[in-house]
Amino acid sequence: MKPEDLHYAKTHEWVSVAEVAGQKIATVGISAFAVEALTDLVFIELPKVGAQVEAEQPFCEVESVKAVSDVYAPVTGEVIEVNKTLPDKLEILGSDPYNEGWIAKIRITDESNLANLLDFTAYEKQCAEEGH
Amino acid sequence: MNDESELLRTPLHGWHVAHGGRMVDFAGWSMPVQYTSIVEEHQATRKAAGLFDISHMGRLIIDGPDAQRFLDSLLTRRIDDMTAGQVRYSLVCNEAGGVLDDILVYQIQLPEGGLSGYGLVVNASNRKKIVSWLNQRRGEFDVGIDDKTAEYAMISIQGPKAIEVLDAVCDHELTSLRYFFGVMARVASFRSFVSRTGYTGEDGCEIICDAADAGIIWTRLIERAEPLGGGPVGLAARDTLRLEAGMPLYGHELSEQINPVQADLNFAINLRGREFVGREAIIKAQKNDQQSVRVGLQLEGKRPAREGAVILHGDEPVGAVTSGTFSPTFERPIAMGFVKQTAAAPGTPLAVDIRGQHHPAQVVPLPFYQRGK
């Protein structure tokens, strides 16, 4: 997936929504900007498959050498799959955040917050402002 | 967190900002927490030479006829036997034996009748407290107490190539400088005090120079360190380095609620033939088998334990973590904490509660890291 085609939460998670058998499935991860800002990631606590997550609420934790950070669910729904290869290969969050570095797939149960997500241009603008 | 504009700035502040330093509030100073990656800066120090701006640390001058007697009445470690240029690690305690600060004492004797006295390097977070403690305790002692923090800057260079880098721009031959001794020397032609000290577990030096000269000295050292794999290091890697070296950090392993015996700093206590504030309490603490003591912990898995995490022995809480990180050298989580003495023996299997999950851990001897001789 290309970053230009994704949507983003203000809290730096990316989302790609696909229709599968009539259901909306969101693949989510954290943006390259976030990975670079966090630096030195050493641990991820993946969400549990089956967990009900709510948009803008923490659903996953990453630890850098320095500190623990929450990852926020960018959509509301049920976690149906997690990237089990990530915990032992955390460097792919940096090398390929938008493909191999995906964190979880969420079956969307409430679409109301999707409109709050930013497109690439808007997200880039936000990052540029935070970068100062 | 203070507004950035209200924070104190070291003479190297502009350099840090211009070179990608992520500036944070540290004890009221705007300091670089990292420039690139913590792990890279850590490894640059372990493998080559890391440069640290430590100008935020407090630099005090204690002089006058009673300077030695005055300090000997306040420090846990004797200074009456120090010789010119010698540096000593010591603690300052209150009457209850609680640690007010951990400091370096410098015996300073300038040639040609210049300054004679003691320099103290104190933690930035404790500077005002220590200055006021010294004034409060001055009593009849004929001493001068001067806070010179703003007039001087302080740069640390640490790592296996630190001496090589510094030697090239220093007029004093440094390879023969003894550990925990210092000399007046010219660095990049500027008059400085160079001591073989540090806070990383590596060989290296700390340089005290005039604030106005710090920029050029720093730049010269950076230019020489970078081709060798060294470079600037922020506070985050300073923390991982000192943690691997098993060194306590004030506010974590040391506080007014912790005595030096608990903190396992017996080497910094000299009781014999002297009186100092906190002595009686320390003697009591040496016999106290109920107080918790500082230990090193090695954790299984990859998740670091952070300050405040509860340490368990079986199901029983026996203490808490005071510092924890992911060790870049050992590539696993390490921590220091205080536990009951029954759980403090190396090899004791413990667990650390990290956000509700119990992670297996083991007591290990400190330091975690010791450089090859």
UniProtKB/TrEMBL annotation, chain A:
The glycine cleavage system catalyzes the degradation of glycine. The H protein shuttles the methylamine group of glycine from the P protein to the T protein. Binds 1 lipoyl cofactor covalently. CDD domains: GCS_H. This is Glycine cleavage system H protein. PROSITE patterns: BIOTINYL_LIPOYL, LIPOYL. The glycine cleavage system is composed of four proteins: P, T, L and H. Its cofactor is (R)-lipoate. InterPro entries: 2-oxoA_DH_lipoyl-BS, Biotin_lipoyl, GCV_H, GCV_H/Fam206, GCV_H_sub, Single_hybrid_motif. Keywords: Lipoyl.
UniProtKB/TrEMBL annotation, chain B:
It catalyses: N(6)-[(R)-S(8)-aminomethyldihydrolipoyl]-L-lysyl-[protein] + (6S)-5,6,7,8-tetrahydrofolate = N(6)-[(R)-dihydrolipoyl]-L-lysyl-[protein] + (6R)-5,10-methylene-5,6,7,8-tetrahydrofolate + NH4(+). Its EC number is 2.1.2.10. One of its GO terms (molecular function) is aminomethyltransferase activity. Keywords: Aminotransferase, Transferase. GO terms for biological process: glycine decarboxylation via glycine cleavage system. It comes from the Bacteria. Substrate binds at residue 206. NCBIfam families: gcvT, PRK00389.1. Belongs to the GcvT family. This is Aminomethyltransferase.
